[in-house]
Design goal:
With 456 residues, this protein is an alpha/beta fold. Helix content is 29%, strand content 18%. The strands form 3 sheets. It has a 7-stranded parallel beta sheet. Strands 8-9-10-15-12 form a 5-stranded antiparallel beta sheet, covered by helices on one side. The chain has a 3-stranded antiparallel beta sheet with strand order 11-14-13, with no helix packed on it. The chain is globular, with a radius of gyration of 24 Å. It starts with a helix and ends with a strand.
Length: 456
Amino acid sequence: MLAQALCLFYLLTTVIGPAPVTGKRYQATWSSLDSRPLPTWYDEAKFGIFVHWGVFSVPGFGSEWFWWHWQGQNPPDQKCVAYMTQNYPPGFTYPDFAPQFHAQFFDPDNWADIFQASGAKYVVLTSKHHEGFTTWPSSYSWNWNSVDDGPHRDLVGDLGQAIRNRSLHYGLYNSLYEWFNPLYLADKNNKFKTQDFVFKKLLPELTDLVLRYKPELIWSDGDWEAPDTYWNSTEFLAWLYNDSPVKDVVVTNDRWGAGCYCKHGGYYNCADKYSPGELPDHKWEKCQSVDTQSWGYRKNIKLAELMDLPSIVKDLVQTVAMGGNYLLNVGPTSDGMIPTVFEERLRGMGGWLAVNGEAIYASKPWRVQKENATVPVWYTSSSDGSSVYAVFFTKPQSFSFQLYEPLTVQTTTVTLLGTTGPLRWSPLHPAGLVILLPDIPFTTGRAWTLKLDWVQ
């Protein structure tokens, strides 16, 4: 089996040619792979859009885990069973949903315009979720992909072109495992001592995805049932970092085998919707969904189950202040529309970032991440350290605003982003300052930023 793996990777290297000698080559060990510096574009981007879209968008019930909840888990989720009994004829199978995945209104340029308007700098599309259906013409997923069935078009390729035409970075989500793939189930039954699924399906498909679309980010998932040695993760990542066409720009996460997350890989996702309690010493990302109940589209979504714009802005600011990136998810409908309420949230984010983006993009954590000043404040700093940004989410009751952490000098200047002219201030002792605020302008994001130049 090892010989089979080596043959695959030697073949790939031969196909794309030898890598130019631009620096270190990485070995297929975690100690070597973990030493790779993260490409700088990712940390500077800060904000991205996650898109969960697939056959699961057709039933649009429960979540993107619908098939598993209906027919995989034991006992099955009775809500899913009842949904199928009441709405579909006897004998209807999950694959029968695929022809109904029409995507007839999918306009990649419209999607890309919305994502660009959100202020996001990268987009991550689901190329394959745990159901195994690929949103591109994978020859390893015959008749279970978006060209052979459903939309009859290359969704990954079409969106990628539109995204890159707007100078946004393009990434792809890929599930390592597939709930009901016979090859995977056989390996699982053998306690993962065989790797037929890995070498006949996963690795050839994942490698072809890289060669064909050249994603700048690979968001791996579905790893938790088996160790990284089963998935052959270190061998794949060594090829990706050394010899692939995206070796110098690609970013990866940490979901490459049971026990890997928050420990190995590129940046850390850790658990879904993870937030650390203190400033981590490793780059991380928080993935969050506008729909708090699901990543995929739900037909019965309720307004109360959605994050409102102020909550999203606050989540973004707190994540960035703690050194993280923020990946905000939307779930399109099966006919290819981004629901209007999601679009409203995304365009609202763009409006807030148009005013306050300098406190977010390419920023660095400051020496203090948060303080309870006149109102609670979260801090970021410019990459060169010359500016500090204090973001607050509550309007002060008076025009006097106190900060206790910054150390001022005579040349310190303070401005409120979105307004003109410096603000008057006086130093506090032994540290801090009191600021005279102007009328606070209205913003749907309900967050405002004080910019402090020449403070420590």
